[in-house]
Amino acid sequence: MIGPIVRWKYFRRSLQILMLVLAVAIILDGFLGPKVSPMNLAGVLPWTHWRAFTVVALLGFGNFFCMACPFTFVRDLGRRILPGNREWPRALRSKWLSVALIVLYLWAYEAFDLWDKPWVTAAIILAYFLGALAVDGVFRGASFCKYVCPIGQFHFIQSLASPFEVKVRRPDVCASCRTYDCIKGNASQRGCELKLFQPRKSGNMDCTFCLDCVSACPHDNVGIIAGAPARDLFRDLPRSSIGRYARRLDIAALVLVLTFGAFANAAGMVTPVLDLFAKIEARFSVPDIVPVTLSLLLSLVVLPALCAWACAALSAPARLRENLSRFSIALAPLGFGMWLAHFTFHFFTAAFTPLPVFGRIAHDFGLSGQPEWKVPSLAFYNLPGLELLFLDAGLLLTLYLVWRIAPEFPGRSRLRVLLPWAILAMLLYAAGVWIIFQPMEMRGTLMS
Amino acid sequence: MKRIAFMLAAIAALPVFAHADGGIVIARKETKDFITTVFASPVPLHAGPADIGILVQDPQTKEPILDAAVDVTWTPPAQPKAEWLPPCCSMKTGGGWQRATQAYSKNKLLSSVFIPIKAEGSSQLSVRVSRGDATEEFDVPVEVLPPVSPAHAYWPLLAFPPVAIGLFALNRRIVRRDPA
What we know:
Chain A is mostly helical and 448 residues long. Helices cover 61% and strands 2% of the residues of chain A.
């Protein structure tokens, strides 16, 4: 039943237009609306609801929000006049730029309280539109998605544990294909802009679920296919446009930053950590940006690098770089579990907060009276239990991956190879449990 | 025979875990306008979130009244101990009346609300039922125990990974021993 809807020519465009309308509303309200974030669309929708829907969609379906991306819609419109014909610089054909942007974003989020400044949120979204337009207006393909977009990289990494994947139905059909429309495109449909050649594509890395390949395939041999989560990570075969994970230190860095970032981002909202920051500020008479910056530098850069290096050195010192790159990928499900726990918590506690904001906008236009700001919460007694369940699932999948990957490093016992990484995963899990049981600051929510 | 005995024992043990939807009755009040029954979960009450459910009935017909406005508030002990902080949670910890609604009840005959019980000791819940001109308000004394530690409250979920790892290790050992 879903198949024909997904294959419908305007399915993706409809989603993108819907998201574009929401993005425009958020930008306008962010610039023109109240400066109090819980009363503004820019303070509510992007930080609470969009992030929660994103991770839930990744858990239950796949990279749905890249499919519905409004930035690429505007980019496609812009390309009608912009050339978009240059090659992306060879030196930047990796994830390092994205890694730097993600670190910058996670730091700015805490340091400048982005969730609490609607106009800054609006400016970021606007900058995103302009960035996508500028990059892809100059360079061909989906260079912005593949090499720049931090949101896209977040989706790519978390979708490694998603149950659906865009892939070929019958490999024998591809073996006899001579036109390669899925990557080259044809007269009526462009091919994959992220250079993923379907017969050699494996997993969700770099796949935006744009479904261009599905539309382009003349044999109707590409579709959204279900499978076991993270199955692609069990083996390290050469993947189209990505190669082997064991040789991609940049992707390992991306996973490490996003995994440690999941814990750092949640920890930055719990009372004991905020109290610690306050004590440091008072003790050393420094502004609040100092402890925030130092803690994020430690938790996003220094700690991930040191931990990964130490684990690889203990696991397989003779193949340190390869071991580090390969095993780091296994941490992705654990990070995803923490993001899920964090974002679903915010969603359940603040589920109805957009209602009075829409009411306020209707009031601004003279369509209704003053909204009722006091809204019920969907927080339930066992919400921490649900969060723990996500974390448990993430840990177990990570440990299973570590166990599957270990034989790729022969010469040592399997246990000896996997143990350092398993211990790192369990330490992160313990940190996650501690965070879940702390009182958490509510952001973007008016509490009665 | 052993299997049947095990099943019977399991069935006999089930009532230990059985709770009515909405918890256990902690108060019942009959007036000329309403019969009000207050349920609480968990019982005994611990500092922390408490699920309070209220069944309002017509005293003449005993039929449930579904359109009554039901509000609940909690008054702390006179000398409260350290305030309970919600675990990673932003439940409304401020005082005041909170509306109980059928939207939060699995059993749609009850009106329910989560009340953050912020401190242990002798305290009281107050319930107010209104319908048309009739309003009834009464207090329910409650003895609140100290908050349950997270490890105690969520031990099954904390035990899940080690148990799963243990079972997996056992499975691998069996497979290694007997590959067939």
